[in-house]
Amino acid sequence: MSAANRSSFVYVTYIRTTPEKLWEALTDPQVIRQYRFNMIVECEWKKGSPWKMARADGSLTDTGEILEIDPPRRMVIRWQIEWKPELKAEGPGRCSFELEPMESAVKLTITHEIDRPESKLVTAVSDGWPLVLSNLKSLLETGKVAITDAQHHVLRVGDAGRTRK
Question: What is the DSSP annotation of 115-131?
Fold first, then answer.
C-alpha cells in the first residue's frame, strides 16, 4: 500500500540502558505493568504467539500476534484495539519496536501504522505512546516512572492531540 494510503506514528527516544535491559522491559509482564499504568500483557514472545493487553480489572484493551521477533533488536506486533468500537472498526495495525545500541544508550524507535489514510487509531496512539515511553525511559534510568495516572493527562479518541489542563 502506498504511503498516501497509510497512517503512521513514529516515536524515537534514547534510553541510557543496554539493549538486553530494554528488551526485558518491553517483554516482562511485571516491568510492563510498572510503566504502562498497571496494564497486564500476556504473550509467549515467539513468532506467531498471540498477544493481549488488559486493564488491571481484566477488561481487554488490545489483542494481536507477534509477526516478527529478533531479541534484543526488533519486534513487530499485529495490533488490534478492542476497547473502543471506532478504533476496532479500523482493523489491525502494526507496531514495530527497533532497538539500536548507541554508546551508553539505546535508540528505541516505535512505529505504529495502519493501512488506511487519516486513521483514528494513529491519532489515538500518538497521544498514548509518548506517555508510555516517557515512563519506560524514566523507569530504566531512575528506577521510578514519571507519570502514574495517564487518565489525568490525555483525553480519549476524538480529543486526541489535546491535553487536559
Answer: SSTT-HHHHHHHHHHHH
